[in-house]
Amino acid sequence: MHTAEHILNQTMVRMFGCPRSMNAHIERKKSKCDYSLAEAPTAEQMADVEKQINEVIDQHLPVTIKFLPKEEAGDIVDLRKLPENVSDTLRIVYIGDYDACACIGDHVENTSEIGHFKLLNHDYKEGRLRLRFKLTE
Prior knowledge:
This protein is of the alpha+beta class. 25% of the residues lie in helices and 34% in strands. It contains three helices and seven strands. It has a four-stranded antiparallel beta sheet. It is globular. The relative contact order is 0.25.
């Protein structure tokens, strides 16, 4: 689920030009992420989000980890959400060449292990888009 969240975040960045999720609650059965958007997306756009995420998953991309100095990592990933007391060495999680993110969470070794992404529902209110999703076999 956590690796799927990374793919969701990168897909939202690419499709809407928004930052990665401003809030996330990741659980085994279902999860949710919030994004800051200027306007509500259409149903067609949300269907396209789900489709694009599954296309990335189906590429069977390797998930790899590198440890980089914070200064070097800043050229690759957005460091704005990191706590002030973060280490000078960051753990960067790469999903093929699709996404790179500073992260301490657990991840699969290959996107083929994820299953498929299912967008359960979404709602938009005052600039916040909330997506609820799960993974299926």
